[in-house]
Amino acid sequence: MLLHLFFLLSLFLTFIDNGTAGKTSAFVRTQFPSVDIPLENEVLAVPKGYNAPQQVHISQGDYNGKAVIITWVTADAPGSSQVRYGLSKGKYDFTAEGTLTNYTFYKYKSGYIHQCLVSGLQYDTKYYYEIGKGDSARNFWFETPPEVDPDASYKFGIIGDLGQTYNSLSTLQHYMQSGAKSVLFVGDLSYADRYQYNDVGVRWDTFGRLIEQSTAYQPWIWSAGNHEIEYFPYMGEVFPFRSFLSRYPTPYRASKSSNPLWYAIRRASAHIIVLSSYSPFVKYTPQWHWLKHELKKVNREKTPWLIVLMHVPLYNSNEAHFMEGESMRAAYERWFVKYRVDIIFAGHVHAYERSYRISNIHYNVSGGDAYPVPDKTAPIYITVGDGGNSEGLASRFRDPQPEYSAFREASYGHSTLEIKNRTHAFYHWNRNDDGNKVTTDSFTLHNQYWGSGGRRRKLNKNHLHTLILDRPSTALF
Ligand SMILES: *[C@@H]1O[C@H](CO)[C@@H](O)[C@H](O)[C@H]1NC(C)=O
Ligand SMILES: *[C@@H]1O[C@H](CO)[C@@H](O)[C@H](O)[C@H]1NC(C)=O
Ligand SMILES: *[C@@H]1O[C@H](CO)[C@@H](O)[C@H](O)[C@H]1NC(C)=O
Ligand SMILES: [Fe+2]
């Protein structure tokens, strides 16, 4: 008991000493109402031409970034699933053949969903591509990432809980000004499940058309949230994730996953692990086995940056969804600390929050510290469920702000993570501020494996690193 008091006191002093007491931002602004953009708005318009490809989006198609999966929908007829591509605009020397699928949801019949894997690409190259036929053909481009290399620089965006309101559009447009090359999406895409019957399918289509302005040109790395589950017995729809799985393919086989809802990719200097908050994850489940194996495969000498995506945050001090991540935290937090994950991004809570490096792994049901403590080897937890969907903001934070919470604000926005090299990355959270993009929270992230200035490497050689790095410390990043 005394020991605990002493520990709490020293924890408190630590935060005071460093001047790093958590901040709750009081920022309030006039915002767009949280309503979906009406169907007739031009940003949701169907492209002109008979059977023109629509809802075009790409994702990484393999483990290392030399392939993309291009997905689109044709509404009038099956049409062609062929992608023509090449190194300059209008000069398509290569073709790839895709596959066609369709599904029903209640009485809604989806369009023809084309998925085409374009593989064997060169790294760091701009490709132009064309889909559709004749007058209805449409042209886009994308860039492949640099080769997997510890010092490859790369800029990611992070978006969550996007939806299809005017706030969603604002987030999307601000993101597109950021210069980032790929989105790490932390779940809850269209919020189509807030509609009923045939409108669910209709709103998946409008969402696909809304985001095409970005997703046709750069890969978004998808993870699933609760709004993807769509378990609706009253409509006879009980197959979970049906719309999401039909429309947003992931390269799960490339990481030996048995399920599209959890998988990993490597991109430039990052190893990205996508988890499913709404699939079984306790010990012995397929996701647990897969994650255990995937974490062992991570090679920080090749991909220094280890990033995990999930929908439900493990640390959240908002009244909304408070403690919903506890079960996954109990299952996986120990691994995240052991493998020195750099950052864990989550969504779900419609606000922004960043944690200090803390862990709560000493607690077990028969004893130990039952609260989070500063832990230099732990990840930083960031919640960006603030994309701007029709449910509105989660504006009630718990009071007082817990010690683990570094910064929190209930407004809309997106983040970027700009990796410079193996030791440094710059992180920004950009609020949507009355039509402007305003950086509100930012810091320099030092790699958890390489540290700053290659210190880690030196320690490795001297076999001192476990002694020094495993001790909880006052330095938080
Ligand atoms: C898929 O499309 C084919 C061809 O138009 C059609 O016959 C079939 O009913 C559709 N299937 C579903 C599940 O909608
Ligand atoms: C649980 O924590 C207590 C106190 O730290 C410790 O003595 C015990 O060995 C732990 N038990 C397990 C199973 O880790
Ligand atoms: C890594 O990037 C940081 C930030 O730009 C820079 O200060 C540092 O010198 C770089 N390190 C190396 C080894 O290039
Ligand atoms: Fe959610």
Automatic annotation (TrEMBL):
Any Pfam family: Metallophos_C
Presence of the UniProt keyword Transcription regulation in the record: no
Domain Purple acid phosphatase C-terminal: from-to ranges: 378-438
Cellular-component GO terms for this entry: extracellular region
Chief location of this protein within or outside the cell: secreted
One BP term from GO: phosphate ion homeostasis
Similarity comment: family membership: Belongs to the metallophosphoesterase superfamily. Purple acid phosphatase family.
Protein name: Purple acid phosphatase
